[in-house]
Amino acid sequence: MSSAVKIFQGRFGRVALLDMDAPLVGHAHHHCHILIKAGGADSAFRVRGERAPLTDESAVVVNAWEHHAYEHDAPPGQHTLILALYIEPNWLAGIQRSLALSAHPRFFPNKCVHLSAATRKLAEEFVLELWWDDEVSPGRLEDLLFNLIVAVIESYTGWRDLAGLLRTRPPVAMDSRVRKAIALMRRDVARELDVDSVAAATGLSRAHFFHLFQRDTQVTPLVYANVLRFEAAVERLTLSREPVADISELLGFSAPGHLSRFFRAHLGITPSDYRRKVNLFEPPAREAPELI
Q1: How distant is the alpha carbon of residue 26 from its chain centre?
Q2: Mapped to the 3 state alphabet, what secondary structure does the chain carry?
Q3: What are phi and psi of 40, to 5 degrees?
Q4: SS (H, E, C) 181-198
Q5: Are 15 and 7 in contact, with CB atoms under 8 Å apart?
Q6: By the 8 A CB rule, do 10 and 137 touch?
Q7: More confident site: 158 or 14
Q8: 57, pLDDT greater than 80
Q9: Which burial class, exposed, middle or buried, applies to 275 when counting CB atoms under 10 A from its CB (0-12, 13-18, 19+)?
Q10: For residues 90 and 64, is the Cβ–Cβ distance under 8 A?
Q11: What is d(CA 18, CA 267) in angstroms, rounded to the nearest whole number?
Q12: Which pLDDT does position 282 carry in this prediction?
């Protein structure tokens, strides 16, 4: 059974060390997503409809709002230890302006990044510090995390080329009807998504609504609604002491077991396991210096 070894959550996003032995459903994040094999068997993700191997020398990188799924294709009984980084683009931009477009849908031009020996060593040191040190400070964690992120993406130079990124996909102004649909979905995050009702509320046919929504968000309405529901569950698990059963009811699940299955399908662990393992970090007292 998949489980979490450690989870850290803060203004940087989330850092999770996951012991995986089962696949995950297709999903997305608003985060800039980096996945590094920390131990165990080789495995893979499916990104952009193609297999992305997760090995000692190959990390998987996923753009914000890019649909992906974990495919645990290791031999039966073998686990894969994954260092999963869910990075807030605003945090990266606050440290270095060159990373302002980490939320760009083509920030990562490829789905895999080769890990040099030096980067693998950084990842190993990062994992060891997280595993053994329950008292790691927010400032220390953020420094380690930023250095690891830069080491991973340093192998391609496009991340420093803001103009080039903008040329690859100029920002598209989100259609006002899509914005209205998202507002409705956010307001009713606990309600099971009724695509026909949302489309009607925006004055669109179902087919036209699907087309516009995917064009502007990169994902289907259902995937987007699931992201909102999942993040709402994470927020309540970390910021409240509400029983999991109450959170399940508040988020519109008919039984606590349904929330548990939903959560496990998206992250590989149960809500209770997440709450037990997460370390919530307040922002550090000092601001990190800009690195040029």
Answers
A1: 12
A2: CCEEEEEEEECCEEEEEEEECCCCCCECCCCEEEEEEEEECCEEEEECCEEEEECCCEEEEECCCCCEEEECCCCCCCCEEEEEEEECHHHHHHHCHHHCCCCCCCCCCCCEEECCHHHHHHHHHHHHHHHHCCCCCHHHHHHHHHHHHHHHHCCCHHHHCHHHHHHHCCCCCCCHHHHHHHHHHHHCCCCCCCHHHHHHHCCCCHHHHHHHHHHHHCCCHHHHHHHHHHHHHHHHHHHCCCCHHHHHHHCCCCCHHHHHHHHHHHHCCCHHHHHHHEEECCCCCCCCCCCC
A3: 80, -155
A4: HHHHHHHCCCCCCCHHHH
A5: yes
A6: no
A7: 14
A8: yes
A9: middle
A10: no
A11: 9
A12: 67
Structure tokens at 122: 């950084």
Distances (CA, A) of 237 to 17, 91, 129, 292: 18, 22, 25, 37
212-226 average pLDDT score: 93
2, 18 in Cβ contact below 8 A? yes
289 pLDDT tier (thresholds 50, 70, 90)? very low
Q: In what order do the strands lie in the sheet with 43-47?
A: 50-54, 43-47, 68-71
Question: What percent of the chain has a predicted confidence (pLDDT) above 90?
Answer: 68
In single-letter form, the type of residue at position 204 comes to L
How far, rounded to the nearest angstrom, does the alpha carbon of residue 218 sit from its chain's CA centroid? 15
Single out the residue of 257, 267, 15 nearest to residue 131, CA to CA: 15
Question: Which of the two residues, 193 and 136, has the higher pLDDT score?
Answer: 193
Task: Confirm if 274 and 2 have CB atoms less than 8 A apart.
Answer: no
In this prediction the pTM is 0.89
CB atoms under 10 Å from CB of 118, counted, come to 10
**Amino acid, single-letter form, for residue 114:** H
Rounded Cα distance between 7 and 4, Å, is: 7
Amino acid letter, residue 64: A
Which residue in 17, 12, 11 sits closest to 267, CA to CA?
Answer: 17
